[in-house]
Design a protein that fits this description.
The structure holds two protein chains of two kinds. Chain A is an alpha/beta fold. Chain A is built from eight helices and twelve strands. Chain A has helices at residues 15-27, 38-47, 64-73, 88-96, 109-124, 163-174, 182-189, 201-212; strands at 7-11, 31-35, 52-56, 79-83, 101-104, 136-139, 142-145, 150-152, 179-181, 222-225, 229-232, 237-238. Chain A has a five-stranded parallel β-sheet with strand order 2-1-3-4-5, sandwiched between helices. Chain B is built from twelve helices and eleven strands. Chain B has helices at 2-8, 13-62, 74-83, 86-91, 112-124, 144-157, 193-235, 251-295, 302-327, 340-348, 369-387, 441-451; strands at residues 94-99, 130-138, 169-176, 182-188, 336-339, 354-356, 364-367, 390-397, 400-406, 456-460, 466-473. Chain B has a five-stranded mixed β-sheet. In chain B, a hairpin with a 5-residue loop joins strand 10 and strand 11. Classes of the chains: A alpha/beta, B alpha+beta. At the A-B interface, helix 1 and helix 8 of A face helix 8, helix 9, strand 5, helix 10 and helix 11 of B.
Chain lengths: 239, 474
């Protein structure tokens, strides 16, 4: 799939977006086929070797989500959802039914191109598509869901975390039992947006401890390994 | 004094109806009781008078008038003899004396009607007594020679009586003998008020039960739907689909409920239309904005293009705020228990100049986290924009959670603080957009807080700076 001009299928019922976006993407070195409705898009999928689908969620007839489910179920090309809603539920549903990424309208075309390239790079490099279909872990009664980015305590109370803290917890939980150095943690937790997540790892860990440890001064979950880094010491079960 | 009266005066319709009815019954029953008691007393006096007159007539018939010798008080001996028999006890005991002049009795105590009837009765029996005077007097007003034998006799028999009250009243009979002397006789009025009071209490109790219980039920039937209605009126236009209220209570109240349901449906429709309209505007504007956002990429001047992009971003922010406001009433987000301390820390972490005073106590509230997050984000953003920094703290009071957001800014004119919640109102007069934002931030925050049973308030801190407080139910 190492084509010089990746072939994109752009599905959007709005001509006012489809046309200029198609032109822009072509200028950026993509080959673009567009479709106004899902049925046209289906036949395009069969006729061409499509590398990636850009899919509007809100469409007449079959909506984007069900088409996305169809593509994903048939092991089709990766999908980036174009959505007008930024509401969390749409985002989560989109990712759960197998979309690779999403952008919220109105999006910056440059950012879209960056996302397209990132998804294509991942597919080309053979890296597994991040499994987002409801990853839940359990430790000591706590539940962490990496798709919805939620943490619930043993009583079922939602404990909101900053995205940095969440990434930190996710990294630690997914590698429970391993010692992670500060450098490793920094790599694992640096978010797409960067920004506040560059704060000192120790700081982040102590905040996290305050939220999930019974006694933050004597942590049972996140243990400090002298000279090493941190280790998540509680047994983690994947749900 | 006035406040005391007001404290006793119940505030609710239910209480007022019952209190008024109970008071009216009490007044009526008091009058009733007074009349009854006075009737009972009059009858007792009449009975005693008949007995006294009968005994006097008997005495005069069986013993000659001459037997009445003031010096030896013959009737007294006769009385002793007669009074010791069972018949005498049953008839009551009468003491008699004669005196040369009439006893000095206050005019007011004369029973004129009784006196006239006694006079007639005696005349028919050919008993020559004139100037008959019957008075009802207190026992203490009796001359001692009439009182003492009476009371002694009473003491002797009181243990055989059902009610042991010492009589307080007596009937005094005076009449002139043909020879010019006066014959005086007295009989104790047997107290019979206890029985009457018992009857009266029973009657009162029955009356209260018969009136107050049905009245309480009827009042409850009116008051309960009204209470229910009040609760619902408070919620009109707030979150959630309103359910029509079931008809209950008397017809008048039912009419009110029907009218309320119709009004609620109208309000709900209007709000729904508003939301649909705002949603449509929001969505329909976003599509051309998205198209525009794509097209401006063809502008070659980087600076110009960046400015265009930021203008579009601004419009999108405003649209998002409008959409949030429009959809607030029908948020699909479920309520869930959330650790509020952790939430404000995580929201504050999105800002550079926001700090949280960490509390040791964990505060958990049942909220819609995405909405509350948004409200907090708006308030923190305001604090940082207008007051340079935000300092947050959580407290809990009376089932409510309060989050204080303090800044170091100039604060606001207290008179304007409520206006700030109006859509598109800003602290700066010019409505300049230099500081960004849609002008809907506070409106949205307050709407979110109110949908959670709380509110947003702004106040200047005494130490300077503004404090915004958002509250919501736990």
């Amino acid at each position: 799939m190492n084509k010089s001009r990746p072939h994109l299928l752009l599905v959007d019922d709005e001509a006012s977006i489809r046309e200029p976006l198609g032109k822009y993407l072509e200028r950026q070195g993509f080959r673009v086929t567009d479709a106004a409705i899902a049925s046209t898009a289906r036949s395009a999928l069969l006729s061409y070797d499509i590398d990636l689908v850009l899919l509007d969620i809100m469409m007449p007839d079959e909506d984007g989500l069900s088409f996305c489910r169809h593509i994903s179920a048939h092991d089709g090309p990766p999908v980036i959802l174009l959505t007008a809603k930024s509401e969390e539920t749409d985002r989560i549903i989109g990712l759960e039914i197998g979309a690779d990424d999403y952008v919220v309208k109105p999006f910056s075309p440059r950012e879209l191109v960056a996302r397209i390239k990132a998804v294509l790079r991942r597919v080309t490099s053979g890296a597994p598509k991040p499994d987002r279909s409801g990853n839940s872990f359990n430790f000591d009664g706590w539940t962490i869901n990496t798709t919805e980015q939620t943490l619930h305590d043993p009583e079922g109370v939602l404990v909101p975390l900053s995205s940095g803290e969440f990434r930190m917890l996710e990294a630690l939980v997914e590698r429970a039992g391993q010692v992670l150095t500060r450098d490793q943690l920094l790599d694992l937790t640096r978010g797409r947006e960067g920004g506040p997540f560059d704060r000192a790892i120790d700081n982040q860990v102590s905040r996290l401890r305050r939220k999930i440890e019974r006694d933050p001064k004597d942590p049972q979950h996140i243990k400090t390994i002298w000279g090493g880094g941190y280790r998540f010491s509680t047994t983690v079960t994947r749900l | 004094m006035a406040t005391r009266v007001f404290r006793l005066w119940p505030k609710s319709l239910y209480g007022q109806i019952l209190l008024v009815a109970a008071s009216a019954l009490l007044i009526a029953q008091s009058v009733n009781a007074a009349l009854l008691l006075s009737g009972v007393r009059t009858r007792a006096v009449a009975e005693t008078s008949v007995m006294v007159v009968g005994r006097v007539a008997n005495q005069i018939e069986r013993h000659s008038v001459d037997a009445f010798d003031p010096a030896i008080n013959v009737p007294s001996a006769a009385r002793e003899r007669f009074g010791s028999t069972r018949a005498g006890r049953r008839a009551g005991v009468v003491a008699m004396t004669t005196s040369p002049a009439p006893l000095d009795i206050p005019r007011a105590d004369y029973q004129s009607e009784m006196s006239v009837r006694a006079q007639e009765f005696l005349r028919q029996g050919d008993i020559e007594l004139s100037d008959v005077r019957i008075s009802a007097v207190s026992v203490n007003a009796l001359p001692p020679e009439l009182r003492e034998p009476q009371l002694r006799r009473w003491q002797a028999t009181r243990f055989r009586r059902a009610s042991g009250d010492t009589p307080s009243r007596a009937v005094l009979f005076s009449a002139r003998l043909p020879d010019g002397r006066w014959v005086n006789a007295a009989g104790l009025v047997r107290p019979n008020e206890n029985a009457s009071i018992f009857a009266l209490l029973l009657q009162t109790f029955t009356l209260f039960a018969a009136v107050m219980i049905p009245l309480a039920l009827v009042a409850r039937r009116i008051a309960r739907p009204l209470e229910d209605l009040t609760k619902r009126v408070r919620r009109v236009g707030l979150a959630g689909e309103p359910e029509p209220m079931e008809r209950a209570g008397p017809d008048d109240v039912q009419q009110l409920i029907v009218a309320f349901n119709a009004m609620q449906a109208r309000v709900s429709n209007l709000l729904g239309e508003k939301d649909v309209m705002l949603g449509a505007i929001g969505h329909d504007l976003k599509t051309p904005l998205a198209a525009l956002r794509v097209r401006i990429e063809s502008v070659d001047d980087d600076e110009e293009r960046e400015k265009m992009a930021s203008t579009i971003d601004e419009m999108v922010t405003i649209l998002d705020d409008i959409l949030t406001l429009a959809r607030l009433g029908k948020s699909g987000e479920p309520l869930q228990s959330v650790d509020i301390g952790a939430m404000i820390e995580s929201v504050a972490s999105e800002f550079d100049r926001a700090e949280v005073t960490v509390s040791d106590r964990r505060t958990v509230a049942h909220i819609r986290p995405v909405l509350i997050r948004r409200a907090l984000r708006n308030l923190i953003g305001n604090a940082i924009t207008y007051g340079n920094r935000a300092s947050l703290a959580v407290r809990e009071e009376a089932g409510m959670v309060f989050v204080d957001i303090d800044d170091d800014g100039p604060g606001i004119d207290a008179a304007l603080s409520e206006n700030m919640f109006e859509p598109f109102v800003r602290a700066e007069r010019s409505r300049s957009r230099s500081t960004g934002g849609s002008g809907l931030g506070l409106t949205i925050s307050r709407a979110i807080a109110r949908a959670h049973g709380g509110d947003v308030r702004l106040e200047n801190r005494s130490t300077g700076g503004l404090r915004a407080t958002i509250s919501f139910k736990r």
